[in-house]
Structure formats: C-alpha cells, structure tokens
Amino acid sequence: MIDLEAAARAALERLLARAPHVRVAVVGDVMLDEFLYGAVERISPEAPVPVVDVEREVAFPGGAANVVRNLRALSAQVDLYGAVGADGAAERIRAELRELGLGVEGLVEVAGRPTAIKTRVIAQHQQVVRFDRERRGDLPCEARLRLQAVLAERLGDTHAVVVSDYGKGVVGSALMAAILGLTRPRGVLVAVDPKPGNAACYDGVDVITPNVKETEAMTGLPARSDAEAEAAGRALLERHGARSILVTRGERGMTLVTRGEPVVHIPTWARDVFDVTGAGDTAISVLTLAWAAGAAPAEAAALANLAAGIVVGKLGTAVVGPEELARAAAHRPTSRS
After folding, report:
1. Of 151, 206, 215, 273, which one's alpha carbon is 20 to 30 angstroms from that of 184?
2. What residue ranges in 165-272 does DSSP mark as E strands?
3. CA-CA distance, 204 to 112, in Å (whole number)?
C-alpha cells in the first residue's frame, strides 16, 4: 500500500527543486475563457429563464493556454504551440502570455478561423449557461505544416510535452506523429489530455489522462468503480503502448495504472467543489511537471490529485501555487491501493 501523503510530499520536493530548470512544451487547442459574474434576483418576463445582473467580467487564456498558466504558476519554463485567429481574442491571449514572461512565436495565426471563445455566466457561485464561439475542424494543411515547422525548430531543449486536445482540430495524426518523431529519440516525456475521437493518434505516448466519460468512450468499458477503472485503464495501457494511464474520476478521485507497477486508487482531496473548469488542465500540468522533475508516476499522480482538489474549490479557470500544494500535502487522505 502506498503512503500517498509521503508520495505527494516527495513529488512536491522534486517539483520545487527542479521546476525552474524544466522546460515543458504545451501543444493543443488554444482558446479564451471569459467569465461574467453577477446575481439573479428575478425571472425574465420574456421566457422562464433567470435574469443575471452582470457585475464584473474577467478573461483568461484557456484550453492549452490554461495548462501553460498552471505550469508557470509552479515556475516551469513553458512554450505554447497552437493556432489562433486574426482577432481580438488572440491579441488578449498573446498579451496574457507576455505578462507571464512567455513568447508567442508558437501561436500560428490562421486566417478565416476565429480564436475559440468560451463564455460562462456565473451567478451565486453557479454556472448558469456557457456560450461557445468556435470553428471546429482540422487545421488547414498549410497552417499545420507551419506549426510542425515551429515545433521542429524549438523542441530541442524540451524536457516534456503536454498535448492538450480539446477536439477543436489542432491535434491530429500528422501532428502527433511529428511530436513523437521529435521526442522519442531523446526520451522526452509526452503526456496527453485526450479526446476520444483522436484516440488512434496517441499510440506510443508516455501517459494519457482521460476522465471517466473519455475512458469509457475510448474503451467501450465501464469505468465507475475502482475495479472498472482499473480494468479500463489496463485496456488503454495495452491499446496505446503507454507507460501509464491516469483515469481522473471526479469525486471518486483518480486511478493510476502503470506498466509493471501495482494499480493505485487515489481518493479525492477536494473539500468544496465550486467550479470544475480547468481541473483537468491542472491535473496534467502537475503530473507532467512532477514526473519531469524526477518524481515516480505514483508520486506525481498523488500530487496532481492534490492540485485538482484545490482548483475545484476556486471559481473560474484557476491555477495552483506551490504554497497551496505544500499546505495540502500536509493533510493527505489515505490510499485505497
């Protein structure tokens, strides 16, 4: 049985010591997350829907760019690669990245393809509705080749790659083949936050982090109970030739299946759940950074679980800092492995 408190602490020690020296490339679907916060005091006379009196608005880089925000909050060196439109949303994302001290050379501008925007309306700590403005579909060949060229030029000193696949069209078989061709010869860690429609692209990566719904879609197997999550995780492990599968299971915690190691069921650490937005981004960020910093897979997963438990207690697309992780690591729940 694994002592998850000790595992999380070990991973945190390695992360804090090594994070400033670890360079992570984040590749995937870039978007802008908008939040409109307000209050509901009446129902519309026009239709049976609440009227939200908007009090404030905020926006953050989202999708793959939110993975970048999480990694920067933990002092990692980060490069972002993705596609944006020629529009105001792209400029806001670039400005936020520059505020984080990051370059924007990896963002390929695609004419006629707007930057994806997700707008969430929040009232009394509850999400009322979400509006998505985006154009799904594979990148034009010319844009994909430009992105691959930038990756080929800049991945030389990278220690890990996070593929953040939101199913918007940036990630596909050609791009994944290019990433693996650049990383496999150097033993670079490759982690994927997947979408089931692209499952065939992930063969040969190191770790995949599907949630329950994605696990079930990718395997055709149930993944609700511990035993089910373990069986489905093992099926994914063999199907994709991965080293590890981390099934993120919401209130049931996480299940880590690693080749040649005992399965680890990690109870959720979350105390209060206000907003699950971006929790998967936080989990894969911490998992990958801790692993690249020298933590064992089980140690990195224990720390990722802590981080996800913290972020769901915040509103909006939130990130986790090292001080929060240190406090959480001192109050780790017991293992179910």
Report:
1. 215
2. 189-193, 207-208, 244-248, 254-258, 264-266
3. 34
Q: Report how far Cα 148 is from the mean position of its chain's Cα atoms.
A: 21
**Cα(86)–Cα(25) distance, integer angstroms:** 23
The pLDDT, as a whole number, for residue 326 is 86
Quickly list DSSP for 74-108: TT-EEEEEEEE-SSHHHHHHHHHHHHTT---TTEE
**CB proximity list for 138: less than 8 A, separation 6 or greater:** 144, 169, 172
Distances (CA, A) of 50 to 122, 128, 304, 336: 11, 8, 36, 43
Give the pTM. Answer: 0.93
DSSP assigned state of 119: E
> pLDDT at residue 203 above 50?
yes
Identify the burial level of 283 via C-beta atoms within 10 angstroms of its C-beta, where 0-12 means exposed, 13-18 middle and 19 or more buried.
Answer: buried
What is residue 293's DSSP assignment? T
